[in-house]
Amino acid sequence: MAWHIIALQQLINGLALGSVYALIALGYTMVYGIIRLINFAHGDIYMLGAYFGFYAITMLKLPLVPAMIVSMAAAAVVGVLLERIAYKPLRNSSRIAVLITAIGASLLLQSTAQLVFGASFKPFPQAMAFRRIQLGPVFMTNRQLLIFGVAVLLMVILHVIVQYTKLGKAMRAVSMDKEAALLMGINVDRIISATFAIGSALAAAAGILVGMYYNRIDPYMGMMPGLKAFVAAVLGGIGVVPGAVLGGLLMGVAENMVVTLGSSTLRDAVAFAILIVVLLFRPNGLLGKKGIEKV
Amino acid sequence: MTILAVENLTVHYGVIQALKGISFDVQEGEIFTLLGSNGAGKTTTLRALSGLLPKTTGKVTFDGKDITTTPSYILPSLGLGHVPEGRRIFAELSVADNLLLGAYHRKDKQAIKEDMQAVYDLFPRLAERRKQYAGSLSGGEQQMLAMGRGLMSRPRVLLLDEPSMGLAPILVQEIFEFISEINKRGTTILLVEQNAHLALKISHKACVLETGRIAMSGTASEVAADQRIQQVYLGAD
Known about the structure:
The complex is a heterodimer.
Chain A: H1 3-35, H2 42-58, H3 64-87, H4 95-117, E1 122-123, E2 132-135, E3 138-141, H5 142-164, H6 166-176, H7 178-183, H8 188-214, E4 216-217, H9 223-236, H10 241-260, H11 267-281
Antiparallel strand pairs in A: 1-4, 2-3
Chain B: E1 2-13, E2 16-27, E3 31-35, H1 42-49, E4 57-62, E5 65-66, H2 75-78, E6 80-83, H3 95-102, H4 109-122, H5 124-128, H6 139-151, E7 157-161, H7 169-184, E8 188-192, H8 196-202, E9 205-210, E10 213-219, H9 220-225, H10 227-233
Parallel strand pairs in B: 3-8, 3-9, 6-7, 7-8
Antiparallel strand pairs in B: 1-2, 1-4, 4-5, 9-10
């Protein structure tokens, strides 16, 4: 195969994977935007989402789409509880205290998942037969198409919520100025909960999509994608919603390109290399705003 | 009729006592001004009333209801609005969205639309800029937006914190005219100002805060006539 066809093929593979990173990155960036916290447990919410989906399909015998909705709702509840129990009491503490709590919460979720679901991986049930869709010289699998389609759909829904609804406007107001938002009559705690709920639901959807893509789930599956999605969020400009999407897609494509260039062992390293290079030149990320530190 | 009553309010920042027990009553329909130099406790008073700062002791009654411990976000729905110091508009939202958020607790869509039009009528410059980012407005326009946003909750009492701060003298004059106009349309105003001269001109009553205590209070003309007040706050020789 000519090199440009391989590159095109890897671009397609990269976009599918990248859209999953983007879904996870959105949760990081939304939570950061609203309470300036890097929620390190976010990758584990993604893992829980995959398990919720697994049990919804295998035990509740639900078809894929209802299973995904159930899983997203369950993950939203976990996300809200996590914020209420672990982060809210620390709202006025130093940022390092909350950060350490987030790492602790991540370990707790992983260990609990290992205890409840077992340490070994589970094969994810395939909700659809494998098919190739030929696109000229390259192809896309129906799973990739599903991943890409669902991710884009969810991102469009999120965009509409954030830009046009009252909830979205309140979310943006809270991220800009919590006190002023309170004076407008906005229940800031409820808006923060809503942000965690939405971010967690997106992560859960990503968890199911990846479970289907790689055919397996395990309690530690959230670590690497969580880390990479975090990198994607920072790469795009943390706190900026379109930045998370751009960062996620770039990461997915870059990772696949590196594999093409012959080194699948370097695929994880490249993510962080890109981050370092980009931040050297654009410290606020690709779409990041100039840091206006409020006093 | 007393619409806002503050009794023996004290506030601490850590161990420092910022308000040392202040009491005052605001009557419905009036403009009541809190004067005082920097650090006297004017902004602290408004922030404590709105629940943004914890009150150590004291009682606040609004329209007969005890609101001492009512959370901040409930107050706009009771009819107590607060336009904070430094305007605090949402810079990355449009002018129209800022106004809409001012009516956050309200569900009466048609009336919200009418009130928005009323704000645009009062501040025509906001109407021209309704789709712009609020952060792109000039200082005077941002103050108008902050006040308009405050009015969108249909407050019975509006707390106004330093509305003239950082504005050119010609704009300051204009802002005070707007405050008078808002009051004439039926909103009671509790004003905090450094510009004692202009504030006393439009106010009905005033009190002077000095290091967390009320040093003097009375009608605006009584306060303006006081010799010491003239020397310290009105720049008389």
